[in-house]
Amino acid sequence: MSGRQIMSAEEVRRALIRISHEIVEKHEGTERLALVGIQRRGVPLARRIAGFIAEHEGVSLPVGALDITFYRDDLSMVAHQPVVKGTDLPFDPNGLTVVLLDDVLYTGRTIRAAMDALMDFGRPTAIRLAVLVDRGHRELPIRADHVGKNVPTSRDETIKVRLVETDGVDEVVIERLEPEERP
After folding, report:
1. Is 138 exposed, middle or buried (0-12, 13-18, 19+ CB in 10 A)?
2. What CATH topology corresponds to 9-156?
3. Sheet with strand 97-105: strands edge to edge
4. CA nearest 69: which of 24, 28, 106, 116?
5. Residue 174 to residue 178: CA distance in whole angstroms
6. Which one of 44, 115, 154, 162 has the fewest CB atoms closer than 10 angstroms to its CB?
């Protein structure tokens, strides 16, 4: 694969700060608001956004982690022995506005699975979606409320989000798939 950087560490940081402000503005404050990151890279994104909200609002929001492994509709195609990363929701989502966070929005299937998983823990007042990158090609009627960067892609490309917490560096790279890697 060959790739080119489409977001630097500074651009990732600025996008997350902007998203943190948008979340508070759309919600009209921070009361009854919680953030839930989708395992794996959505979790550090949720924690970072919570940190930015704490800086500019002086409020610590509850942050959770959601593992959607067993809610995926393509589980049999993904792996014979899926890696379960764990769910940690240290709050009751009933009556809260929950903002789901993920790194890349593509077909919408991950988000559908995340909503199904979240509903098993309670009934939030509202569920919103924030993503670092929206690459298009939706298969389900799902859209993000907050987007760091819209990146039109072909199906022959993939977006790789790398974060310090999981990969040792902050950047977003677009790569062209080799013919044998294409779906």
Report:
1. middle
2. Rossmann fold (3.40.50)
3. 63-66, 33-38, 97-105, 126-134, 146-150
4. 116
5. 13
6. 154
Q: Which of 97, 27, 17 is nearest to 54 (CA)?
A: 17
Torsions phi, psi for 53 (to 5 deg): -65, -40
> Are the C-beta atoms of 4 and 40 separated by less than 8 Å?
no
HSE-up (13 A, CA, CB side) for residue 175: 16
Helix (H) or strand (E) holding 97: strand 97-105
Q: Measured at the alpha carbon of residue 177, what is the angle toward residues 174 and 183, in degrees to the nearest 5?
A: 120
| Domain positions in the chain | 9-156
**How do 2-7 and 171-176 pair as beta strands?**
antiparallel
- Whether the full predicted model's pTM is greater than 0.70, yes or no, is yes
pLDDT tens-place string over residues 73-118: 765 444 555 556 789 999 999 999 999 999 999 999 999 999 999 9
Strand ranges across the sheet with 2-7: 2-7, 171-176, 157-162
| 174-180, long-range: CB < 8 A, 24+ apart | 174/3, 174/4, 174/6, 175/1, 175/2, 175/3, 176/1, 176/2, 176/3, 177/1, 178/1
